[in-house]
Amino acid sequence: MIKAMIFDMDGVLSDTEKSRFLILKKILKKEGISLDESYSKKFIGLKLERIFSKYFKDKHLDVSRIRKEKDRIIQSHPEKYILGYPGTKECLQRLSDDGLQLAVCSSSKKESIHFALTSLGILGFFSLIISSDEVKEQKPSPEIYLLALRKLCLTPSECLVIEDSKIGIEAAHRAGIKCIGITSNFQKDELKEADRVVSSLDEINTSLIRLFENTN
What we know:
Number of helices: 10
Distance between the termini: 8 Å
Radius of gyration: 17 Å
Mean pLDDT: 93
Strand order of the largest sheet: 5-4-1-6-7-8
Strand content: 5-15%
CATH architecture of the largest domain: 3-Layer(aba) Sandwich
Helix content: 40-55%
CATH superfamily of the largest domain: HAD superfamily/HAD-like
Shape: globular
Number of domains: 2
Number of strands: 8
CATH topology of the largest domain: Rossmann fold
Largest sheet: 6 strands, parallel
């Protein structure tokens, strides 16, 4: 029986991936680095440390300073950079009313997660929030989802994950948890590793969850 739904944040609960990329593009331009649009999808689901080590290792960028600048820009104008998806609150309310525990597992820092969820008015729905601060390895490592299972005191078959990226789906599967992919930033065929793909949170309901229970 499914007892908990675990959400990624960026690209699932908050429409921030595109604005995050544009902000980073602006900041890195000052560092002499030009980003074209091909980098946009490459960065999805990755924390800054991973982005810099993977793509700009030779640039010796100051991650801490750049993160502070990024956060300052976002927090100065949350209405511009932290946008919600239609139907998100309704989905969370629906799942909560069905008695499901709701959790967030995000590669963002805890402060950023709380700020975003508060700005969107949905922080109160979640009984558990796990950030990149609490794990050593980032997605696609399953560490963050394994930690969620321990804190929720649940087995993999009692949870479902909702992710918008391939690395997030891989992380969930490596933790033994089935995953719903949502096409916020990738096309359906790009998320084919997911156990099911939806176009919005409007499609997440009791009937869909029961399908997973019948296959566990």
